[in-house]
Amino acid sequence: MPMHSTYREVEKKRHIISLQQMAVCAYEADMTIMQASLQKKYIMTTVELIEEARKVVGEYRLGSDEYRAGTVGAALLSAQGNVYTGISIDVACGIGFCAEHSAIAQMLKNRETKIEMIVATNSESIIPPCGRCRELMFQIDCKNINTKVYLSEEKYMILDKLLPIRWEPSR
Ligand SMILES: [Zn+2]
Question: Disulfide check for 147: which of 27, 91, 93, 115 has CB 3.0–4.6 Å away?
Fold first, then answer.
């Protein structure tokens, strides 16, 4: 028995190792497919997301007669495939907030920050987000520049186009 492996033996060992690696890769690929199927995301359509936003629309009077909530409803689909909704709060001095704002707050409660698509609507039509909501989407996660923001039932623009010059803190 020679002390050193012959060239052919080395090649044979290499071949065995590469087959073992392939087996590991195949196993990992199977696991990935299995995990993907376990975490299978529900792909929501725009129509369904708009429907989710409309479900929460319904203006009602708050404790003070002149103030209202629920005039606008918003729904967003997160990158993890979850849907979050929110309603607007209309009170004095601009201290209320938009429906998108409260939908985002609900998402953050679940420790998510990335939005796939978002829509806000009143009882009649889709409403594009105000400047503050556009900034909020960007500031909670800069990857949200690719968020699809619905401007009507048929049309969306990515946030990057709606917020071309963004606020940056001076550092
Ligand atoms: Zn807003």
Answer: 115
